[in-house]
Every structure is written in C-alpha cells, then in structure tokens.
Specification:
29% helix, Hypothetical Protein Yjia, Chain: A,domain 2, Rossmann fold, CobW-likC_sf, 9-stranded mixed β-sheet, binds guanosine-5'-triphosphate
C-alpha cells in the first residue's frame, strides 16, 4: 500500500498572514517539497526571487516546491498534480491548499474524502488557521466565518505579534482557547514558524504513535469523571488562565464539549451516538475528534470528522500513555453546550437501554436534540 499524500488546508481571514506564512514554509527545508495550491498566482503573492520556472499553471520554486493555481475546480487540479507526480514530472511530499479568506474548509475536506481518484491518494493532514494577532479580536466579533475557521482548526497560527501588547495577546489567546481548546496556538513572526508545528498534525496514519494521537486530540490529560454524567468539562471553560476578557456574545454560537469514558463502549452504542449526531445535527458540527475504546476490541482507534464528513477510523497499535479510556471532543455551531453534553452522555448508556428504557440521569435515550 502506498502512502497517501498529506494535505494541509491553510485558512484564515483576509490579510491574516497566510501568504507570509507560506512563503516562509516554502523557504524551509524542514517543510519538505510542498505543492501549494492557490486560486490565482496574482493573489498568491509568492516571493519572486524564489521562482525558478513558471509554466501556465505550475510554478517551480528554487526550494523544490511547486505552486499550482486552480484551473476549473479543485479536484481537477489535485488529479492533475497527482498524474504529474506519478509520471515523475513533478515531485512533492505534501500539498497545502490556501483557501481564500472566506472559504469554508468543509467542502474541500469533503472533496478529498469522497472523490474516487482523490480519496485513495490524498489524506487530510490538518486544518491550519491563521489569526491576526492585532485584529483577530474584532474579526472574531464581526465575522461568523472567522469563528468557524478557529473552531475547526487543528492548529492556530497567530501573526503580527510586533503589533500587539501583552494584554492583547493574553486576551486573544484566552478567547481562542475557549473556542478551540485543542488547537494549541503558536506565534509566527513574519511567518516564521517551525514546519513541525503546522505539518504532520494528522492522526489518520497507521504509524502514528499513540501519544501523538493524544496530542492531536488535545484531550484533557487526566481529568476524572466530573459529576454523575461522567462528562468532563472542557478544560478551557473552567481553567483559562487569564480570564480577563469580557463576554463575547458572538462566541456563544460555538460550543465545545468533551467526554472521557473509562470503560469500553459497546459498538452499537457508539454507532447510535455518532449516527444520531450526524443525522440530526450534521451541518452544525464543525469538528469531532476521538480516541475510542470499543468493547471486545483490544486497541483503540482514532476518528475525526470535519462537519459531517468522516475520515475512515484508524486503529492504533497501543494505548496512549497506557491509558485505555475513550476520549471524544465535539465542537459545534449553534448547538447549546448542554445539548452536546447530553448527547455525549448517550455514550455511557448500556446498549439495552438504547431505545426504550430510561437512561442516565433518568433521561430517555432518545437523542436530546
Ligand atoms: N507587522 C507584521 N506584519 C505581518 C506579519 N505577518 C504578516 N504581515 C503582513 O500582513 C499583511 C497581510 O499578509 P498576507 O500574508 O498577505 O495575508 P493573507 O492572509 O495571505 O492575505 P489575503 O491573501 O488577502 O487573505 C502583509 O502586509 C504582511 O506583510 C507580522 O508578523 N508582523
């Protein structure tokens, strides 16, 4: 079996610093040979001194990287890149798709997952969201798309530190932490960030170390079950270290809920939980990630979805830090957190109660939505 080509979706609001970051990565040998897919070369703002050769739709860079503009639709461009790679006309190790400022990464992920030619050859490595350190707060206040980009991210890259002071940075970081506790923001000064912070984020690899899967999930490390329902409050909701910012009404649209379950989950309970969440609330789900221990299966698997599109689950070869519990994180838009919590609590139900008997906390195990 050949390795799939990792694909990074680079997103972020207009002017946040995506191109600046990309240009730095294209200079960086540690990034490997990157094929960058952009809408238009003009928009891409590539460093001209890096360009070695420019053909109609592909620019070769001195670093061995490639920049490729989308002709027609994205899938056609990715198929064409693949064909040229197979014919040895182009060499690249990974693809970065720079989405335009407002693009929603969901449909791009969908294309990667379902396209007959693309799905067997490419895999989502991660969604990297660039946030302007100076303007990020007001952008998040005014643009719901920016909130969604933050909520979906596997990694947040913060820019323009030189235009901020310590209070601005603290407040922004605290807000990002609440919106997406797992994305572990990193600062990039004029785009400079270690390649390892933006690439290799994906957990959907057979060879991923179990501990790396834990980092990818950013699951709360060792929180005991909180309360009768067993639902662990997201860390950020309770322990953001610098809770000095005022309440942001717009952020109420984004809710994060997580759960940690010590005992193996019956497969039918897990299926019912996931199917019902997707069937009823699919469009409002931004991200789901989990490491799951199913009954009668000796090792965990990791799974994740961007909106309602799921990558095939990947088995791990061992338990992260020897811990055999399941951990699941759901980030959603326009679903109140108590509803997400109640739905996660379905995972604690014995399978027999799935349809008729009252469940935990005296609730029926019908879905709470
Ligand atoms: N002061 C400062 N400026 C930065 C930094 N990073 C990026 N910029 C500037 O911010 C502006 C926008 O950066 P781009 O990289 O073009 O942003 P973008 O997200 O690609 O922009 P669009 O393609 O319009 O969405 C440019 O003038 C960059 O030079 C930084 O760390 N500090």
């Amino acid at each position: 079996m050949h390795d799939k080509i990792p694909v990074t979706l680079l997103t972020g609001f207009l002017g946040a610093g995506k191109t600046t970051l990309l240009n730095r990565l294209l200079h960086d040998p540690a990034a490997g040979r990157v094929a960058v897919v952009v809408n238009e070369f003009g928009e891409a703002g590539l460093d001209h001194d890096l360009i070695e050769d420019a053909a109609e739709d592909v620019v070769l860079m001195q670093s061995g990287c490639i920049c490729c503009s989308i002709r027609g639709d994205l899938s056609r461009t990715l198929v064409s890149l693949l064909a040229r790679r197979v014919r040895d006309e182009l060499q690249f190790d990974r693809v970065v798709i720079e989405t335009t400022g407002l693009a929603d990464p969901g449909p791009i992920h969908h294309t990667l997952m379902v396209d007959r030619v693309l799905a067997p050859n490419y895999t989502l490595d991660g969604i990297v969201t660039v946030v302007d350190g100076a303007l990020g707060m007001s952008t998040l206040d005014r643009h719901a798309e920016a909130l969604a980009q933050v909520a979906m991210a596997d990694r947040i890259v913060l820019t323009k530190r030189d235009l901020t002071d310590a209070t601005m940075r603290r407040n922004l970081q605290a807000r990002l932490e609440r919106l997406n506790p797992g994305a572990q923001p990193v600062w990039a000064d004029m785009g400079a960030v270690p390649a390892a912070n933006v690439f290799g984020l994906g957990a959907m690899r057979q060879d991923i170390a179990a501990d790396d899967a834990l980092a990818w999930l950013a699951a709360p490390a060792a929180d005991p079950l909180a309360g009768l329902s067993g639902i662990a409050l997201p860390e950020a909701a309770t322990s953001a270290p610098f809770e000095t910012v005022s309440h942001h009404a717009s952020d109420d649209r984004i809710a994060t809920a997580s759960i940690r379950i010590e005992t193996p989950i019956p497969a039918e309970v897990f299926d019912f939980w996931l199917d019902s969440l997707i069937a009823i609330k699919g469009p409002d789900i931004l991200r789901i990630k989990g490491i799951v221990h199913l009954e009668d299966i000796p090792y965990p698997f990791v799974f994740h979805g961007v909106q309602h599109i799921f990558a095939p689950p990947t088995p791990l070869k061992s338990w992260p830090k020897g811990d055999t519990s399941s951990r699941i994180v759901v980030i959603a838009r326009d679903i109140p957190k108590p509803e997400l919590d109640r739905h996660l609590a379905l995972l604690l139900s014995p399978p027999a109660e799935k349809t008729e008997a009252p469940g935990m906390m005296g609730q029926s195990l019908e879905t709470p939505f």
